[in-house]
Design a protein that fits this description.
Blueprint: E1 2-3, H1 4-11, E2 33-37, E3 48-51, E4 54-58, E5 63-74, E6 77-90, E7 94-109, E8 112-122, E9 127-138, E10 141-151, E11 156-160, H2 176-179, E12 185-187
Antiparallel strand pairs: 1-3, 2-11, 3-5, 4-5, 5-6, 6-7, 7-8, 8-9, 9-10, 10-11, 10-12
């Protein structure tokens, strides 16, 4: 993987850009909040690497669009999606502000995996928000809901339930009444003695 900074320096002298992860999500009316440790202690200032089938620099709009099998890594955090839009400011040097990702977004770190339809990585707030058929996996533990907010500073994640009537995919073994009820669902492992 080539760093985004190296790619832009090669194609546009005197410019640099770092990429992180994102998730642009419509607010989902959630009922239940559930806190869980996930993607904790991430270094959001680490260099960002990328790979994609296509990249388009939209200089006048201060954004970069990556499309087709997008793979972005920052330290040990990885994001995969079909399309990402990277917004930045240009005040003498390029500073990334946020990344919006769509199309089967998956964020992983170690044995932790979060997935959803869309995601936004807000670099200033150090928060990743995912929405739409959200699933959080840590080892064999699972949580499912409508919206997930990951605070990279505290390592705390909050999951909101699906709105009533959203059938979602649900977890294996989950009954239909729970799946569409607007509640967070999942399973946790217990010690075997």
């Amino acid at each position: 993987m080539t760093t985004l900074i190296q790619a832009f320096r090669a194609s546009r002298p005197m410019r640099s850009l770092g990429i992180g992860f994102a998730v642009s999500a419509a607010l989902v009316a959630g009922a239940q909040h559930l806190a869980a440790q996930a993607i904790a202690a991430h270094n959001s200032k680490a260099p960002v690497n990328y790979a994609a089938d296509r990249i388009e620099l939209q200089d006048k709009q201060n954004r970069v669009v990556l499309s087709g099998n997008v793979d972005i890594t920052q330290a040990d955090l990885q994001m995969r999606a079909q399309r990402t839009t990277v917004a930045y400011t240009d005040a003498g040097s390029l500073q990334i502000q946020r990344i919006d990702a769509t199309g089967g977004v998956v964020v992983t770190r170690g044995s932790e995996r979060a997935s959803g339809d869309v995601a936004v990585y807000d670099f200033n707030r150090k928060i990743i928000t995912m929405a739409g058929n959200v699933a959080l996996r840590r080892g064999t533990d699972t949580l499912n809901g409508g919206r997930l907010v990951i605070d990279l500073t505290t390592g705390i994640s909050n999951i909101d339930g699906r709105p009533t009537g959203d059938s979602g995919s649900g977890a294996p073994g989950q009954n239909d009444a729970t799946r569409g009820s607007g509640r967070v669902s999942g399973s946790f492992s217990v010690p075997k003695t």
